[in-house]
Known about the structure:
The complex is a heterodimer.
Chain A: E1 2-13, E2 16-27, E3 31-35, H1 42-50, E4 57-62, E5 65-66, E6 77-80, H2 92-102, H3 107-120, H4 136-148, E7 154-158, H5 166-182, E8 187-192, H6 195-201, E9 204-209, E10 212-217, H7 219-224, H8 229-234, E11 241-249, E12 254-257, E13 263-266, E14 278-283, E15 289-291, E16 298-307, E17 311-316, E18 326-330, E19 340-344, E20 351-353
Helix pairs in contact in A: 2-3, 2-4
Chain B: H1 5-35, H2 43-80, E1 83-84, E2 90-91, H3 95-101, H4 104-134, H5 141-149, H6 156-166, H7 179-186, H8 191-224, H9 234-261, H10 278-304, H11 308-317, H12 321-332, H13 334-349, H14 353-358, H15 368-378, H16 382-411
Antiparallel strand pairs in B: 1-2
Amino acid sequence: MTSLSLKDVSKSYGTVEVLRNIDLEIQQGELIVFVGPSGCGKSTLLRMIAGLEHITGGTLEIDDEIVNDVPPAQRGIAMVFQSYALYPHMTVYDNMAFALKLAHKSSDEIDKAVRAAADTLQLTHLLDRLPKALSGGQRQRVAIGRAIVRDPKVFLFDEPLSNLDAALRVATRIEIAQLKESMPESTMIYVTHDQVEAMTLASRIVVLHGGNIEQFGAPLELYERPANTFVAQFIGSPAMNLINAEVTGTGDTTSVRMSDGGHADAPIASLDADKGKTVKLGVRPEDLTVTESDDYLVSAEVEIVEALGETTVLYFKAREGEDGLIAKLPGIHKIAKGTTIRLTAAAEKLHLFDGDGKSFLYR
Amino acid sequence: MLENPAVLGLATIILGVGGCLGYFFLSNVILDKLFFPPRGEDAGKNINRANMVRPWLFLFPALFALTLYLAYPVFETLRLSLTDRDLGGAFVGLENYRKMTAEPKFWEAVRNNMLWLIVVPAASTAFGLLVAQLTDRISWGNLAKSLIFMPMAISFVGASVIFKLIYDTRPVDQNQIGVLNAIWLKFDGGLGSVLWLQVLPTVLLLAFAAIVGYVAWIFVRDIVAKGSDKSVWLLPLRLLLAVGGLWLIWLSLSSVVSIWFEELPFGEPQTWLTIPLWNNFFLMVVLIWIQTGFAMVILSAALRGIPEETVEAAIVDGANPFQIFFKIKVPQIMGTIVVVWTTITLTVLKVFDIVFAMTNGQWETQVLANYMYDKLFRANDWGVGSASAIVIMLLVTPILVWNVYNARKEMR
């Protein structure tokens, strides 16, 4: 069942267009993550769904009902803010009960809802405290509790972990995942710029860039079959290497040749017209391996070696028109700085992007 | 040439500023070179010692002036209030206080001061808060705020002169130069008068009663609501609010009734400042006009300091603009509101210039400060005058302490 759908939604401030042609169909029970660099419009999109920003164009439907002009409280959404936005003058109990009081629920009903939420989030012993007497993680849980008591159709999270320290972030991320599991019926939309949060939490990820949706798909689909160079480099760390290459053979398998003599046959279909064109060959750092044979992908001079024990990360000298390559090899490798080595990768791990950065797979 | 006031003024400034600089410079030099030179065996120790003494060097002029001009007069006034001038300054115990409390004019002053104390801080703070909230989001808000703040730059006496002109009265056959009378004479008991003097006030009073009722209900509802904060000290506060609200509602409703039965003296210019009880309010308007700007500036800054996300959270939670204002914004700036309220209360307790310049305490408008001035400088009775000064100080002190306590709490 479709829980939330955006049709051709756009947003502009005066003449500045910050979001355009946003089309999304979100099913009930999904956890959707909006991810993208700062300024990509992900928070704006979330605030438009919440009703805190006016929708300039297109329609927003929640449960098959157009809610463009419905006030936030009647949309059936609840939001968890980046800074938690707890009411500083109210106790934890009152913070969670506030929305229900405004909705004129009976006090028994309010009490039951608040205590149930507090129980789920282990906040029962803190109900009488003021927000200032809570730690960061506890405040975060109160903010989530305030959303839960309203029993919304859609939960909205706006970078909820960005104010927490690293250790707490991991713990809270797992808590949110468990919370989602305990509420399989509710739809959640989660905004973050952290790709680890996106990959671990999402059932599907929306990658936003410059006000456009770059790709919408399951986390591993984005990793394995990125639609363009932006997604390819945004998902995965370190970012995917892009190497300039010339198409030498087309068909079900595409052959490319690099300027330094390396070559590859990728099992990706191409058209006859592609022959001779310059394309980008994409290969993830973790897919590269060192080789001695003449059948190599690329050869480059090692500039920096980072030996981490479990992996060895090699940074290569950049060549003209390209970023420096990065290779992430499992285990310990004794490779000296300044040596030139040959790298190769399994054919099925290769990606091809045309001159506009679009993947050959999605043409 | 040397008697020219400008030259004298310039000389005073040069002497004053130069003296200050000279004092701070020389005293520090003496401290560092003579008493604790940072040399020799105890260099480190001497630097620490000098730094312990240094704050006192800087504080000394202020402390000295405060002692001379504030602390000493308090004790001297206390002593004078226990002596009698006619007996050559002999000690008479509490005789002056007995004399003072036997005077009806004193009790009139106390009653009026209480009236000022309730009306002016409440009205100034409420108007200031209202203006601060209303001008927050509009493009010409800053212009409006500048205009409303402007009276702060006018002295109390200047403002009194302005309002004396507004309240001015001329005989019936002459042109009225007072704005209030000019307006008043426009009414003749016809349809316009009914609309402006009966229908409009009725609507305003009913709206006021409705708002008071709504606000009181918001607070009172929590007495019966389950699960909310039921601290012991909140209950009397809420009951007080409920009673105050009911009283205000009753007052406005009964006023509505009286509006329709009152016989108004149309066509006669009124001497506004001589109408007992009402003239007190005409005087208070002057101070409210001045203090609203002060309240507005402080409260506007406080409102801007409220995290925008808490307001947005309240919107998502379903709060309407009234609920956002009264349940989210006002509680978050309550500390500032209390500081503003008590600061204005202090000004009000000391109010003197406005009454002195406009009525001089006649027609039942006497206040304590003007009463003190009357006794001290007109009746030349330092005993009773000092006694009333001590009464004013006793009234101010608890509010002052409360104000300082709150201001310090705000700063944390």
